[in-house]
Amino acid sequence: MAYQIVRAEWLGPKLKLLEVAAPEVAQAAAPGQFIMLRLHERGERIPLTIADFDPGRGTVTIIFLVVGKTTEELATLERGGAILDFVGPLGNHLELEAPGTVVVIGGGVGVPAVYPKAKALKAAGNYLISIIGARSEELLVLEEQMRAISDEFYVTTDDGSQGRRGFVSDELAELLASGRQIDQVIAVGPIPMMAAVAKVTAPAGVRTLVSLNPIMVDGTGMCGGCRVRVAGKNRYACVDGPIFDAHQVDFGELMSRQGRFVPQEQDSLDRHHACRLGGSANAAPA
Amino acid sequence: MPPPPERNRMPEQDPTVRRRNFTEVALGYTEELARAEAARCLACKKPQCVEGCPVEVDIPGFINRVKEGDYAGAIALLKDKNNLPAICGRVCPQETQCENKCVLGRRFEPVAVGRLERFCADWEREQGIQAPALPPRRAQRVAVVGSGPAGLTCAGDLAKMGYPVTIFEAFHETGGVLRYGIPEFRLPKAVLETEVQYVRSLGVEIRVNAVIGRLYTVEQLLKTGYQAVFIGSGAGAPSFMDIPGENLNGVYSANEFLTRINLMKAYLFPEYDTPVTVGRRVAVVGGGNVAMDAARSALRLGAEQVYLVYRRSEQEMPARLEEVHHAQEEGVDFRLLVNPTRVLGDERGWVQGLECVRMELGEPDDSGRRRPLPMPGSEFTLELDTVVIAIGNRANPLVPSTTRGLDTNRYGNIVADLATGQTSLPGVFAGGDIVTGAATVIEAMGAGKRAARAIDTYLQQHAGCGA
Question: Coil, strand or helix: which one is B45?
Fold first, then answer.
C-alpha cells in the first residue's frame, strides 16, 4: 500500500510541501511528532517533522528542503504521486505546560516544524510571540500562517531583505533585554541557530526547548544512530525526543554527527544528477 | 552395525571466496548426504532430543521419514510444530538444544538435526509450498505486535487454530531481527520471505509500517476489535559501553550497522540509497552471534583488517561455536581478554583508534563465568576507522512505556509468565526478547508457541466477547 499525495506545492526555491493521505497517522498525530518515509524499494528512510495534520481529511503535511538525493526525488512528486512507506507518528509530542508567555522561533526549514507546536500553544491559551527567520526573503515560509496565530510576530533575515537584518536569536535577545516576562522558548531550525538561541536564554534561565532531527535509520529506538548527548547522557532523539531541553544539549557533537555520511550523500547525489542528465539527453527535445 | 561416529559435513563456500561476498556460506545437504545422516539416528524409544526442542518437534519422526525418502512427510511433521523450519535449520543453536540431548552424542557426534531440518525445508521450497487446509474461522481476533520469530510463531499457531490474526510490524518489511539482524550470508532473505509467505498462507494478515505504541496503543487494539494481544516487540534498544569517544563518527551500534546492511541493503550502495562506512580497519566489540555477524559483514564490505575485541576468553563467548569458527576461517582477527577503554578521534570528530586494556580472568561472577579484570599498565591502542559496539540490547521501550498497567522489570522487560506469556494485563500476552532480554530465535519461537496456546485457552474462557 502506497501513500498518495493529495497536494503538492513549492513554498520557496528549494522548499516543497506535500500533503499525504495517511488517515491512521493523521488520527494519531500530535504536535511535535515526526514521520519516517521511504520513497521506493531502493530508497533510504528519512525522518521529517509533521508540519500539519488533519484527521478529518486524513492527511499529514510535510515540508522539506531539497538537500540530497532523497529529498530531490521526493520533490519531484506531484498530486497523484505516491510514497511507498510512510511511518508514524513517531517521537514524543510537545507537553503543554500551564499557559503563559511563550516565544516560538523558527529558522528556515524549522518554521514548518515549529508551526504545529505554535498552533497548539496558542490553542492552549498561551500568549504567543513568534520569531521566524531565514537567510533572505525568498526563503521565508509560512509567514502568513504564523502571523495569523501569533499575538506578536517578528521576522528576521540575514541580509535584511525582510524584517530585521540579523538572526532570530538577536530578536530574542532584544525581547529578553527589554525585561519582558517570558515563560518558555521553543526553537526549531538549523543546529547553529538552536545553539545560538540556547546561548541567549541560558543566562536568563528561561526554559528553552529545541526539536532535533539527527540522522536516523528506524525511528523506533532500535539503531542508536540518532543518539544525542543531553545533560552528559546519551538519549535517542527518536524515542526520548525529538524535543529536548536546549540548555542540556551538546550541539557541537550533534553538528559533527550530522556529517557522518557527507561523502556518500554527495556521491549519491552526483550519480543521481549524472543519471538524470543521461535521461534528458535521450528524451525528445521540448 | 553401529552408526558412523562422525556426522556428515555440510558443504560450504570456501572461506577465501565467501569472505568477500554476501551469498550464503552453508550450502545445505544433498539428498544423498541427508539420507546418510538420517540413517545415523538411533530412533530412541524415549527420544531425549525432543525435550531439548523449545517448539516440541517430533525429531525422530521427521528424521525417519528422511531416511525413507519421504521428504513431504518429513516437512509435514516439522511444520506441525514449527512454522519456520528453513530459518530454524539455519540459525538455531542446535548444539545446545536437541543435538545436546542426542543419545548418540554421548559417545559420538550427535545426529545433525539442524542440517536435516534445513534440508527438508529447502526441499519443500524447491517443490513449491502448498497452502495447508485451514479450520473454520473463529470470531475472536488476535493482534500480534512485531513480526519477528516470536510474533510469526504465535500468529501462525493461532491461525492454525482458526483465529483471525493481524500482525503489526513497525518496519516496512517483515521478520524483525531475522530481517534487520541476521545477514544474508547466514539467512538469505528469500528463505525468510518464503517462511513469512507460509505464515500469510495460514490466513495471517501482516500490516507493515504500523508502530504499536505510537499509531495505536495496546489499549486501543483491545478496544477496536481484538480480544487478545501478543507483544513480541523484541530487544531492540542497543547498549553502549559508556566510554569516552563513543559518539565519534565511525562508531556504530551493531543494530545500526547491521540494519543499514541487512534491512536497507547498504552493501549495495549506491544502487540502494542507504550508506554504510567501514574504512580500512574495523573493530567489533563483543563476543556474541551479533558480534560475529558484524565482523563478518565488515569483511564483506571490503575492510582490510577486522578485529573482534572481547573482554573474556573464547571459552566464555556466547556466540555459537560454528559462528566463531566461520569468523576465524574468514580471517577475523580475535583479540581476546581485551577491553576497550576509550575511542580515540581526530579533531574533526572521526574515529582514529581504540584504546584497550588487557584483561585476566578472576573469580566467577553472577553469570557463572570468570570475571574479567583489567591488568594495570597493559594499555595499548588499535588504529581504526570504524568501531561497532555489539555488547547487547535492552528492551524496546515503545510498547511498555505506552501501555498503562503493563508491569516491567528494572531492565524494562515486560513481566510475563514464562509458561503462558500472561502479562499483568488481562488479554495481553508477551514473549521473546521483550520478556527475556536478548536470547535466541528458537527461544522466542517457543515463547510464541506457548502464548498461542494460552491465548486460545483465554479466548475460550471469554467466548462471546467476539464480534
Answer: coil
